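look at this fold:
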Amino acid sequence: MKNLWSEQRAKKFKNDPLALRAYTSRLLGEDPNLVLQGGGNTSVKLNITNLFGEPEEVLYVKGSGWDLATIEKQGFAPVKLDLLKGMAELDHLTDTEMVRNQRAAMTDPSAPNPSVEAVLHAIIPFKFVDHTHADSVVAVSNTENGAQRIRDIYGSAVLIVPYVMPGFILARKIFEMTRDIDWRRLEGMILLHHGVFTFSDDAKESYTRMIRLVTKAEGYLKKKKAAVHFFQAKVKEDLPRLARIRQAVSRARNSAVIARWSADDRQVAFANHPKARAIATRGPLTPDHVIRTKRTPVIIGRDPAADIERFSRGYHKYFQRHATAGLKPLDPAPRWAVWPGCGTISFGATLAEAEAINDINEHTIDAILQAEKLGGWQALPEKDIFEVEYWELEQAKLNKSAGAPVFQGKIALVTGAASGIGKACVETLRAHGAVVAALDIDPAITKTFKQPEVIGIVCDVTKPRAIEKAVSAAVRRFGGLDILVSNAGIFPPSAAIVETDQNSWQKSLNINLNSHQILMKACIPYLELGVDPAVVVIASKNVPAPGPGASAYSVAKAGLTQLARVAALELASKNIRVNVVHPNQVFDTAIWTQKVLEARAKHYKMSVPEYKTSNLLKTEITSKDVASLVATMAGPVFGKTTGAQIPIDGGNERVI
């Protein structure tokens, strides 16, 4: 493992030990082989002067919610050191009581909550303390005779701590083990099935010891020929099956999920391993991962729905085997799947959660395969894993959790998404929790949206093959499809029927009508496998109230509305809702060029400002207004409505 210490960078913090602590913490956090997804913690002990001018020792420990990879000085919680040391001397203390007392002992009430390992950091008699969950060390310890292997690697240079529950129990265990120990003879501690602690009065030395200890474990794995190598694997893509798996998991969880399919060489090799079912279901890399991943994945076979139902039943039995009075069961849905022939799938209520689980899975797979080469992967007994999954601190979080956004876990696809109504629909759906595939013929669509929850796809919606590829890209990225906003359209130049150019007429039909039929045809097989699926078609006020000079547009939009009505009839049995929005005079869209706007105002003998508010409410309609209605129609408010046509026009006498 490479030592990333930079004397030049460290010099900037020579007079600020807390800033130095943040710097060395980032060195650890930037390496996913040491720290994953907010894991690990670090601290520094400082002498400060309190409000009364008295000296006071304070432990600055990583605060809850901060990631070591990006932590700054404000990410450390300052806690009075004497109180933390005093807690370690208590025979018994619940973790809830520990957290409450740690919070009460903070010198800055606006700082984040201290790490649950704060008491442990306090009793280590060195200024700087580093803690990671180094993959190589855990891979060695998670084997038969793991403790002996650790002794073989480090001899007496480290204190080997048998696994106990994190939090107060762990701090108390180490307090008892080190009552009469000479800390100066130790380079660090190895917590079996958990991770590594190093410490020193010098920040560089504490960090260097971590790198040295982890490098020794890596060398041991190499010496034992336990390193893993992955070769390019052929994967047969089956996107409908992916959507079906995601639908079954969503039902088991009772809420929509994103399904992050990973088919790189590592995941495929693991999924195809002859002992995949056995080794994947022994338990997680470290017990704290269970909070994100559950204890085991689901193994996908010929019938995904049955496999996931079987997993759920097994989870209920697991809960019943270990539950104590008052525990609230979590949902029984798997958080990841091993999919033979195809790789792995990570399921999250959000894309960030799915990505985090996938990240953990990658490192878990490496560790499992390394441990197998050392004689066999051996995780903790399920009771120990259960205790972390149902930790009182995690149960408390459940009781405080806020309501989820209405479209959390939902997957949407919007056409004509680079501007106007389409762009506003993407932004509104995303704001309400959805992930979105944004389609447009404009190449700028790939850079229009910066959030990872939105993928911009260049697509000519008049070409069936282009649409098929775009829909496949959306399903491949997110796992399925729940919401379709069929929006792409153009407004041809105004002309009387007798003067209408045939090419203009056909172009309007191709984009404003035919493309929507092609899109529906490509999306329906995935919407059938969606979660509360809904289609919202953007038509026009010209359907109920056409005007002269717009035959090409009005006829195409009328045909589109009729298509939506037929779709509502055909798809109701599949629980797919299809509704129509009829906007009018939405002037912040690409359709309403200044030239078109002036021509329509002139036709009605109005000024442009008069034309913009020529409705009963004398108000201007914006793309955001339409997007808000679209989102409402795609959501639970319209959960029992299909085939509806809703105007958004400020009130139009002819429509009314």
Q: What stands out?
A: The mean pLDDT is 94. The chain has three domains: 7-223, 239-397, 411-591+622-648. The chain has 25 helices and 18 strands.
